[in-house]
UniProtKB/TrEMBL annotation:
UniProt entry tagged with the keyword Secreted: yes
Matches recorded under InterPro entries: GH, Glyco_hydro_25, Glyco_hydro_fam25_subgr
Catalytic activity: Hydrolysis of (1->4)-beta-linkages between N-acetylmuramic acid and N-acetyl-D-glucosamine residues in a peptidoglycan and between N-acetyl-D-glucosamine residues in chitodextrins
Protein name: lysozyme
Keyword terms: Antimicrobial, Bacteriolytic enzyme, Disulfide bond, Glycosidase, Hydrolase, Secreted
Enzyme class: hydrolase
EC numbers, comma separated: 3.2.1.17
Keyword Transferase: no
Recorded superkingdom: Bacteria
GO cellular component annotations of the record: extracellular region
Family assignment from sequence similarity: Belongs to the glycosyl hydrolase 25 family.
Single GO BP term: killing of cells of another organism
Length: 285
C-alpha cells in the first residue's frame, strides 16, 4: 500500500530504492567471482614474463647454476648432444650448432594457455632444416588452468607429434613457480592429479606419452616424490654438476640430462642417454 502514496511519502521511497541498489550491487559481485575463478582456461591470468620462463630458468635460481668451469659430466660414453631453446634465444644459428655436434633440439612452444613463443616457427623449422631431430615443450602453470586444458593448448600450438621419424614427443616442463609459491599452491596429491590430467589429454590428442622435465628436489617437494609416472613417461632431469645425482622416485634412469643452463653458441646443453639409434627410436614411438 505505501507504494501508492504521494506527496511526502515519496522521499522515504527514494532513499529506500537507493539503499536497495547498493545492496543489490553487493550481492551481485560475489556471484560473478566464482564463475571466473572456476573457468577452465587462464584468461585474465596471463604470465607476466613468459619470455623469462625457459626450461630450467627456476631450477638454476633455486638449486644452483653452472657446473665448475672446465669439468665434464661423468658417465657420458654413449650420449647424443642436444639443446633446448625458447624465445629468449631469438634467432638460432642451427647450422652452426649442427656442425658443433648437436643432433637434437627441444623448443618452447607454449606457457599456460595464453602464451605462444613468437620465435617458435623459426626455431622449430630451423632445427629440422638443419637435419636435427626436434621436439616442443610446454612450460606448465598448474595454478592457471587444468592439466588437460594446457595439454590441448600445447598440442594445438606446436606440441603435436608427427610420425616423420624426426619429431620427438612433447615435453612437460614442471619446475618452480616463477610467479609465486614453488608448488603453485597445490598439495602433492593435487599436483600429481594435475600432471596425470595433462598426460592423459596429451596422449589422447597425439598418441604419445609426453616426456617430463623436472628436478629431483622439486619432485620431492611438490609431488611427495610420487612413483606414478616412472613406467610411462621418459624423464628429463636438470643437474648442473659433474654427475646426475639421485633421480626422482619411480625412474631407474634418465632419458635426457640437462647438464648446464647455458651453452655456446646458444641454448641449454643436454645429453640424450643412449646412441643416436635410440634417439630415433624415441622419435618414432
Amino acid at each position: 500500500m505505501p507504494l501508492r502514496r504521494s506527496g511526502p511519502a515519496r522521499r522515504p521511497l527514494t532513499i529506500a530504492a537507493g539503499t536497495l541498489v547498493s545492496l543489490l550491487s553487493v550481492c551481485v559481485l560475489p556471484l560473478a567471482l566464482p564463475g571466473s575463478a572456476g573457468a577452465s582456461s587462464d584468461a585474465g591470468k596471463r604470465p607476466a614474463h613468459p619470455e623469462r620462463d625457459w626450461m630450467g630458468s627456476t631450477i638454476a635460481a633455486h638449486e644452483g647454476d653452472e657446473r665448475p668451469q672446465g669439468s665434464e659430466p661423468r658417465g657420458t660414453a654413449k650420449i647424443v648432444p642436444g639443446v633446448d631453446v625458447s624465445s629468449h634465444n631469438k634467432h638460432v644459428a642451427w647450422p652452426a650448432l649442427y656442425r658443433s655436434g648437436v643432433r637434437w633440439a627441444y623448443v618452447k612452444a607454449t606457457e599456460g594457455t595464453n602464451y605462444k613463443n613468437p620465435y617458435f616457427a623459426h626455431q622449430y623449422r630451423g632445427s629440422y632444416n638443419a637435419q636435427m631431430i626436434r621436439g616442443a615443450y610446454h612450460f606448465a602453470l598448474p595454478d592457471h588452468s587444468s592439466g588437460a586444458t594446457q595439454a590441448r593448448y600445447f598440442a594445438a600450438h606446436g606440441g603435436a607429434w608427427s610420425r616423420d621419424g624426426r619429431t620427438l614427443p612433447g615435453a612437460l616442463d614442471m619446475e618452480y613457480n616463477p610467479y609465486g609459491a614453488s608448488c603453485y599452491g597445490k598439495s602433492p596429491l593435487a599436483m600429481v592429479d594435475w600432471i596425470a590430467d595433462f598426460f592423459r589429454a596429451y596422449r589422447a590428442r597425439t598418441g604419445r606419452d609426453a616426456v617430463i622435465y623436472t628436478s629431483t628436489n622439486w619432485w620431492k617437494a611438490c609431488t611427495g616424490n610420487s612413483t606414478r609416472f616412472g613406467r610411462t613417461n621418459p624423464l628429463w632431469i636438470p643437474r648442473y654438476g659433474t654427475s646426475i645425482g639421485p633421480l626422482p622416485a619411480g625412474w631407474r634412469f634418465q632419458t635426457i640430462w640437462q647438464h648446464t643452463s647455458s651453452g655456446k653458441p646458444i641454448g641449454d646443453r643436454n645429453r640424450f642417454n643412449g646412441p643416436y639409434s635410440r634417439l630415433k627410436a624415441l622419435a618414432n614411438g
